[in-house]
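Shipment paperwork, digital attachment
Item: protein structure file
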Amino acid sequence: IISKRNRRVAGNQSWANVRNLNRYLLSTNNAGLDRIFSGKEIVKATNNFAKSNLLGYGGFGEVFRGNLDDGTTVAVKRAKLGNEKSIYQIVNEVRILCQVSHTNLVKLIGCCIELDIPILVYEFVPNGTLYEHIYGGGSYDPLPWRRRLMIAHQTAQGLDYLHSSATPPIYHRDVKSSNILLDENLDVKVADFGLSRLGVSDVSHVTTCAQGTLGYLDPDYYLNFQLTDKSDVYSFGVVLFELLTSKKPIDFNRDEEDVNLVVFVRKRLEEGRLRDVIDQVIGKEATEMEMESMMALGFLAERCVKETRQSRPTMKAAANEIESILHGIAYDYEP
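Attachment content:
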């Protein structure tokens, strides 16, 4: 009886969120979405959410490949039925993505609120995630150094747009390599805004319970519950370490004191041994100028993951520095 009651309460809360989404779309003239999809269109596009179309899944729900009647391939995200947190994240993602437009942010095409749970429809990004390219175990060719720098720069540009150009500013709150999608040209589309929060103009931080992913979570935010743009900067610094070392943010196969990648690399930096942890795929045959650029990115990453947020650069400053590093190696790649 208690279990049934709990499911009924969860269902009522979920529908309250869906109704809120419906009212939001009506009050904002569909909030700038390209389309509001019918349930029939979604079921047809995904072949009734066939397992063969499943692209990925997680705490948020599932993502399916879909084909619209006009031939457009899309990604369809479905929340978990009865999971209040999952449905809230879907609703939150609509609110966030309706307010942004940037070449390095995934585009939300539309949504559907006719089915049992809300559905989001995104542009299809065909080349997987940065995580898969770094740790895919042969699924993809290793990323060359210049491409890694370009991915870092494009990610920084997308996050800088959220922090500096969106009004009010937007804090992503879950920056990680598995939320960085790569298109057919290996260009970046930052994704998954389910945990994102709107900032408040003229206020330095938002007070909120710490959420994010282990290994990427800003310790200052975790301890003080004060979310700022610098929380994203910390997570971005961890991604830079991943690009540089091809090592996971948390890995219990490393020595106990080196389980955390930030601690592991910071120690090598203090010892003057950063070269020792650079991924051999990019480091083994690097030119002198390329090696200098790898060191420069490592030092930037270390500043991004400083313990206190005041010591970290802004995303704009990080983007500008990576652009400068890219320019520094440009002639190495000239024919």
